[in-house]
Amino acid sequence: MQITWVKQTVRSDFFTESVVLYTNLQTGKKVQRTSKGQFLETYAPNNYLRECAEPTENVFQIREFDAWDFYAGGYDIEDDGVIGHYCCDGDGIVSVELLTDGTINLNVQGSYMLDLDSDVEVAIKQATQYIKDEYPAIYEDFLNF
Q: Does the model's pTM come out above 0.70?
């Protein structure tokens, strides 16, 4: 399946409620759904918002996991084939990378470390165990609850 958009729910201290955010993996463009059901896209040159249609084709819905934040796309817009990364430490020291071909990798400091299970829930558990074993301070600070 071709994936163009990543859909996620974003929670922020700046919003009183969750915001649904779509990220285009090919252009980096973002579209958000407002509390009134409108869809607004950010456009250049000054990041103004304008009304648009809801992205409906080739949308990948991410799953939410406690203590793991999701970042859509690769580190650069040229990172073709990357859906995004789950990260638990805020700095990306250890991340779980989802690829459009269905594989899931564990990365350490941005570099590939090992393959994880193709089921994202199992992959998150494997990554949590890896962090517990290899980075106990990160585990204690962010995942031990």
A: yes
Which residues does 116 contact at the CB level (< 8 Å), separation at least 6? 96, 104, 105, 106, 122, 123, 126, 127
Contact 138, 94 (CB under 8 A): yes
- Other C-beta atoms lying within 10 Å of the C-beta of residue 31: 20
Write the CB contacts of 31 (distance below 8 Å, at least 6 apart in sequence).
Answer: 21, 22, 24, 39, 40, 41, 42, 52, 54, 55
The pair of three-digit structure tokens given for residue 101, joined into one six-digit string: 């071909």
**Single-letter amino acid, residue 66:** D
Largest CA distance in the chain: 47
Q: What is the pLDDT of residues 11-51, one digit of tens each?
A: 766 656 778 999 998 888 899 998 888 999 987 667 788 89
